[in-house]
Amino acid sequence: MGNKYNISMKKFFKNDEGFVCANCGKLVGKLNYSSRGHCTNCLCSIHIDIHPGDRLNSCGGLLIPTEITPNSKKGYVINYTCQKCGKTHNNRTAEDDNFKTILKVMNKTYNYLNFKK
Ligand SMILES: [Zn+2]
Ligand SMILES: [Zn+2]
Q1: What's the predicted TM-score (pTM) here?
Q2: Read out DSSP for the chain?
């Protein structure tokens, strides 16, 4: 994995100044220690990467968190499934992610529709 993110997410995460979540409409602020990859509120993301940060995927579907697993090096890893193409994707949690949402995913009570704007 190594040096991921940086230049790659301009389309949806312009200038690393944050973005508006495609699912819940939250304005997600920029993440200072890494590039922002997903919404802090509902944890949804957009399917724009094949590998994290490469932005080579033209799908653009909504990535919905299906499972979260603890990882000794990365904190928590979110497993996503794309609503549009059905492919899976992984992303680590950010330190300001809503922990209640993380718990909902872990407890299988999460439903992205509950966050729809
Ligand atoms: Zn959201
Ligand atoms: Zn997709």
Answers
A1: 0.80
A2: --S--GGGGTTTSGGGS-EE-TTT--EEPP-SSS---S-TTT--EE---SSTT-------PEEEEEEEEEETTTEEEEEEEETTT--EEEEEPPTTS-HHHHHHHHTT---GGGG--
